[in-house]
Amino acid sequence: QSYCHRLQHDMYFLTSTSRLNEQVVDKIVLQLNRVYPQILTNEEAEKFRNPKASLPTRLSDLLKHLQKKGDRHCQEFYRALQINAEQLFNDLPSRKILKTPDPTEIDTDKEQYMLNDRGPVFFLACFSVAAGLALFWYCCNSEAQVIGRARRILGFSPIIIGRHVRSICMLYLEDMSRN
Asked: How many CA atoms lie less than 13 Å away from 10 in the CB half-sphere?
């Protein structure tokens, strides 16, 4: 978006409810008059600094004048506004539009962590379920030799699984060996 279109979009915001006071407008006009290359001539600067005209009228005339001159002049106005009234510059409607991301654009930072946002507890829970299913499948094998080995492993694993879970598994293995 060109600076002239942005300035046209911001014109109402800048001229309404006296957002810019007279001192800031004078500083902007002086900066535009003294910047290299000179944006405003001495006569134009005096015209836009004339205290006989009301501030909204002078500001509106200045913005229209800059739009007629071209994109470079509008860009210099935005630079002067940023230097002299940074908070107002950040609150401009055209700046808010520029800050909002394109909804069709993919955010690579979000995409990178999308699969990894569950944390270590989720990983441990999934791993425990997988280990439990593997142990269940191993213990459900009909060979008695396998059940004996599983009983030995479960008997020596009080650290790995809790005492209550171990006793339930041992009861299940004993019940399986009787059948």
From this structure: 29
The alpha carbon torsion through 115, 116, 119, 124 (nearest 10 deg) reads 70
Task: Quote the CA–CA distance of 103 and 106 in Å, as a whole number.
Answer: 8
- State the Cα–Cα distance between residues 146 and 149, nearest whole angstrom: 5
161: left (phi over 0), alpha (psi -120 to 50) or beta: beta
Asked if residue 68 lies in contact with residue 49, where contact means CB atoms within 8 angstroms, the answer is no
Residue whose entry in the numeric block shows the structure tokens 């509106």: 60
pLDDT in tens, 27-64: 999 999 988 768 899 999 999 988 888 888 898 999 99
Whether the model pTM is above 0.90? no
How far apart are alpha carbons 33 and 41 in whole angstroms? 6
Radius of gyration of the chain (CA): 37
Which among 22, 8, 132 is positioned nearest to 85, based on CA atoms? Answer: 22
What b/e string do you get for 66-77 counting C-beta neighbours within 10 Å, with b at 16 or more? Answer: bbebeeebbbbb
10 Å Cβ neighbour count for 151? 17
